Amino acid sequence: MHSRSFLRAFALAVLVASPALAQTTKRAAAAAPDAPGFAPAAAIPTVPAQPTTVPPGAPIQRDELTPEQKASLKEVDRMRGEKARIDAELALAEAKRTEELAPLNAEVYRLTTERSLRLAKAAAEAAALEDERAKLERQAALEAARSGARLTERSNKIRELEAEAKQLQLEAANTVARLSNEIQRFQKEDEARKVASKAKAKLLKEPLVDGVLYVSDRRISFNGVVTEQLADYVCQRIAFYNNQSSEFPIFIVVDNSPGGSVAAGYQIQKTMAASKAPVYVVVKGFAASMTAVICTLSERSFCYPNTIILHHQASNTVRGNMTMLKEQIDFTSKWFDRLATPVAKKMGISLEEFVKQMYANDSTGDWQAFGDKAKELKWVDNVVERIEETSVLDLLPVPQPPAATMPMPLPQPPTRTEISGITSRLDDKGRPYFELPALANPFDAWWVYDPQGLYRAR
User: CB 3.0-4.6 Å disulfide test: which of 55, 252, 283, 403 passes with 287?
Assistant: First the structure.
């Protein structure tokens, strides 16, 4: 009797524990499938799931059980309670997870709906823009037809004037000549204007398109020596273009510049940094010294592969006694530290290493590099093969001053501009040179690359 009751209690405990044992085995197999010595779940014999109820039979009288059997039944009751508690916790966790996912699912649905609405709106806007483009093309075609009609009318008028001029030759030869000259001038100007009559300067927020740099009419010429006059010219135009629009970039285009005044270059650099509109530097030929610093420290810079950028130490044409010389050299050194340190920082090296590499690359300290190498050194940001000047819209000749006021041509001088205030002169031996204007700032210094000695300070 006791043995039979014990066996019933034991079987009941095994039936209750079997599902928990199977779940534990599955979790262990999932957690460490590759662990050494771990056998796959299929290789481990498991107890088939059995109903957790005791088969029908005579009810068990607890007073007939031994203490061990009673303890086993008590453990079975505890395990049943634990299983019920775990099942309740799992149900509660599932309910919480469902509740937490509800707003996320709602947000996903909302975002999906918004995206569909935006796509529909974008499609509608694109259709409207396409209609507007077609309308503008029709208007342009109509305007072209009108222009052709006006041109034909003008041509007919010209022929009438020519016929009249021939008739007037018998009456007054001077009058005929004057009319002929007027007609020819009118024809040439009209032809020149027709060359770019349909062109417009391209205003692009991103001017670099498929490797081509488009320079708009927000363009500032920057050539020759950096002087106070050139700084005023550049800074005023940066302010002017900012007042027009702060949305599109401003281009400082350098054909050739050997550098110049430190103070004037610093003024240009700070004006560029303070500009609301982005200011980009485009170097086509050559930029050295102060101009190279302006290019390197600009927000964004462009050049051709064969453009040359040159950095070197600042120099000065100092005068005076030894004390005065030392003071001026010390002050020039401070200028160099303040302006060259940001260049070295952009390159990722120290100022001392920057100067060391100058002389390692060239014994004179004049460290020059072509555009593609300058990009590697971080002296310039972009190297382009093509630059399109979209602001050149007519081919009318530029009025020239009388021959008596033309500056004397010099043999192979660097590119120069009247804006810089540079004067061309001949020394007592008949050699040409450029006379630099006096520095208005008493603490200023010249930072110019001049291996030929073409630039001389007053």
Answer: 283
